[in-house]
Amino acid sequence: MTTAWSNDSDSDSESSSSEEEEEKANLAFMANIEESCSVSERRTLWDYMVDFSTTCTEPWLVGGDFNSFLALDEKKGGKRNYSRSTVDFQACVSAAGLEDAGYIGNKYTWFNGQQQNGIWIRIDRIFFNAEWTISCSTVHVQHLGRSCSDHSPLLISNKQEATKGPSRFTFQHMWCSHESFISDSAAAWRMAPASSSPLINMAMKLKHMKSFYGKWNKEVFGNISTNIQEAEASFSNAQNAYDEDPSNDNYNVYIQTKEKLEHVLSQEEQFWRQKSRIKWLKEGDNNTKFFHAYAVSQRRLSLISTLHKEDDTYVDRNEDIAAMFVQHFSEAFTSASYQINPEILEHIPTILHDSENAMLCFDHKAATNVTDGLLSFLSQQASSSTMGRLVRCTFMAAVWEIWCSRNRARYQNQNMSAKHIVNRTMLSIRAASASFKLQNLSQPWSTALRHTGGVHAHPKLSVPVVVKWMHPPTGRLKLNVDGAFRFVAGEAGGGGILCDHHGRCVFAFATKYQGVFSALDAETRALRDGLAICSNQGILNILVETDSLNLMQIVTEQVSRPWELTCIIQDVAVTAQKLKA
């Protein structure tokens, strides 16, 4: 049985042509199937369905008892294999381009009624074609109980889909085909807020671009359906004008509107291709209809129309479904955490001590750097001694420096250096131990904390060396700077003196530094302060001398700058260039 209907069955016989076209557009077909048990008769029906699908351009829904199944999981009991009838049915559905409407309720629609050799199969189902997917509302099929027959009645409803909530942002590929997309995007990227941190900077710019594209899509690109309607209207007017007056001007307008229409149609195809998420189909023919049907089908499959509650009841109202989701996640996020049975923990061997667990679980989020974190950990009241906690701090500092070095290598294209990691780790440990006033350290730890390179059995003692001061050329001034760091007390200072070619002092300075944990840092600060004094006094064309070869190599860019001294070195370089030092 085949049935056709329209949304307006009482249309007048003298209706206008536009009304007839609208009624034709709303036409649809529905077929009810009651298949025979004969294989040959079923093949006749399969052939008819395939032939009808090739000629039918309207929405078509077909359903009933097909007396065959599509997949092995749709049958329980008996011989579970693919018979010739099943293969023919699969070929028919594929060739006719039909899509299963799905179901709600029990999986199987037929039962042979036998207790010992029971067989359950899903042989009753509903199909529809691509035109139905695009033009008609979503069909819901429910398998009712088999109370009066060995078949389950199929209840078909066309409940409207739930109202869509806020959609997530998706970059549309069709935007790239707009003539002003590149220039507008570049301008928006430059106008985005910036940050000194590369990752934060990228996140802020992406957030800005997301907001920009949402506004740009509404104000500049426009709705794709509206654009197509406007392009079709313009092309139709241009075509009529050229047919009436085939002048050059009308021909140019006709070509322009035709190209515009083809352009927006191509954008529509890109839109539905992206929405359908199909990657295997190559570019070429216009497949907008196929992409549209596939995207709508995917949306239908992801639609939640019914939920099964714990008391074996169902909810199908949108408000009830939303309330169930809210209740589920509210209970999941507010319920008490799961308590582990202490008897299970007794059988797990203990590897870490309580103090080691305290170090690993230590909350250092409030610490601004690794040194602050180490100091906070050292100040904890723990069962282990301060020396034991200092040993564990070494592990904490090493892991932190490895992580920082890895991030610099990944995001700032800096090479990972084992020596740099060791030096930075020792610097953090020295700073923590000095600030915590650990004066009574054992000899091995004192040796290790004073050393920044390889391991030696005995620390080297510094021997004073007298160096003769070299006079600058006549008419030139010479600035000598020096810095020092006292490890045990955690104190640092620096100073300098400016003399002429006779050795007469022009000025001298000395100061203490806070937050300095190396002699190189103190010497760099002394050089910065000395150059700043010369700049303030208007003294130019000076010579600079320091006893730190490493500092001179860093300033002259012969070696890479330590990241912790980057800001100070930049100030030194700018001031030195201004003073011609």
TrEMBL record:
Task: Give the region (Disordered) as residue ranges.
Answer: 1-23
Using the record's annotation, list all stretches that form the Endonuclease/exonuclease/phosphatase domain.
Answer: 57-151
According to the UniProt entry, its GO molecular function terms are: nucleic acid binding; RNA-DNA hybrid ribonuclease activity
Composition bias, Acidic residues: 9-23
Q: Which Pfam families match?
A: Exo_endo_phos, RVT_3
Looking at the record, the residues that make up the RNase H type-1 domain are 480-560
Report TM segments. Answer: none
| Designated name of the protein | RNase H type-1 domain-containing protein
Q: Which organism is it from?
A: Colocasia esculenta (Wild taro)
